[in-house]
Write a structure and sequence with these properties.
Elements lengths: L1 H9 L2 H13 L2 H16 L2 H27 L15 H20 L4 H21 L6 H17 L9 H11 L5 H22 L1
Helix pairs in contact: 1-2, 2-8, 3-4, 3-7, 4-5, 5-6, 6-9, 7-8, 7-9, 8-9
């Protein structure tokens, strides 16, 4: 956070502030919640909403709470975890919560779209953890890609404008020097590579 604020002061103010807020709005927890809500609205039954909130709580809120604790304890620079090494433990926790969520949703025969989302999340977090051990990749771009592709699959061409969020978020991460172009492209390709086969299997 301090680094981003410093960059807002050094770089051209308006452009840097725009990049900062795009990065905040496009953060993986927010896009993850929106993705889950899209499925909840699509199914729109009381049981589906209960399991949607279960998914959000375990796979998003719990890891977020841990990251906030790391930041307050001085063990992480900021909520976006710019240092690759600081991402490992939160990702390990995310893998555990993702697997638990996946197992529960399958055991209770939750709606198929929610099962798909849980499967995508397990694969995504596991791959992210493996990549992060050696390299840094943009989870912002992966999350934005999954949200955009899922919205297009559910709502068709009316959701097409949402795809513009992908290059905007990628630009913001590069402009803030949180990622390289290659890392943002890698994030986009990972999102497509995970969700596309999942849609073919579950849709």
């Amino acid at each position: 956070m301090l680094k981003e604020i410093a960059q807002v002061e050094v770089a051209p103010p308006r452009l840097a502030q725009l990049a900062y807020w795009i990065s905040q709005i496009g953060s993986p927890p927010l896009t993850g919640v929106v993705t889950a809500f899209l499925i909840g609205f699509t199914i729109s039954t009381p049981p589906a909403w209960r399991w949607t909130w279960f998914y959000i709580t375990l796979t998003i809120l719990v890891p977020c709470a841990y990251i906030i604790w790391l930041v307050r304890a001085g063990k992480a620079v900021d909520f976006h975890l710019p240092n690759r090494e600081q991402r490992i433990r939160p990702l390990q926790l995310s893998v555990v919560t993702a697997i638990i969520t996946w197992l529960v949703l399958y055991q209770v025969a939750a709606p198929r779209l929610l099962q798909m989302l849980a499967t995508v999340n397990v694969v995504q977090t596991a791959i992210f953890l493996l990549i992060t051990l050696h390299w840094k990749i943009s989870l912002h771009c992966t999350a934005a890609t999954i949200l955009s592709e899922l919205a297009f699959a559910l709502f068709g061409a009316s959701a097409a404008p949402l795809t513009m969020s992908i290059p905007l978020i990628a630009w913001s991460r590069v402009h803030l020097e949180r990622h390289t172009v290659a890392q943002t492209v890698g994030g986009v390709l990972l999102g497509v590579g995970i969700l596309t086969p999942a849609l073919l299997m579950y849709w």
